[in-house]
Amino acid sequence: MGIAVQWDNPEQTVILWDFEQTWSWDAFADSARVSSAMIASTDRSVDVILNVAGSRPPFGKITAYHRSAFEYIPTNIGVLMLVCSDEISAAQLLMPFFSNLQFVETLEEARERLHLQTA
Fold it and tell me: If you count DSSP H runs as helices and E runs as strands, how many of each does the chain have, helices first?
């Protein structure tokens, strides 16, 4: 039950959050902290793909501890792509944390749009 966070390309300019079908607020906060450290490790702009396709929002409410994971956002964060075909409830849940979200239906579409923006 979680979220896998990893570099999505060898150049380390895109991070992929891959949400499992069920995930927790703890996993969400941990993923934010890991991503922030990854982004802060480079001077380049880093885009993030949040792949919530096929996932469901967690039960329960987010706490102040979980929200604190978003107090520090690196200045070199780039575009945020939210992959959600029918998962509108997950998308609505994540929107308050990411102000510059772009919505796409597939992971491939997210990668293509990021590629076109950097070309």
Answer: 4, 5
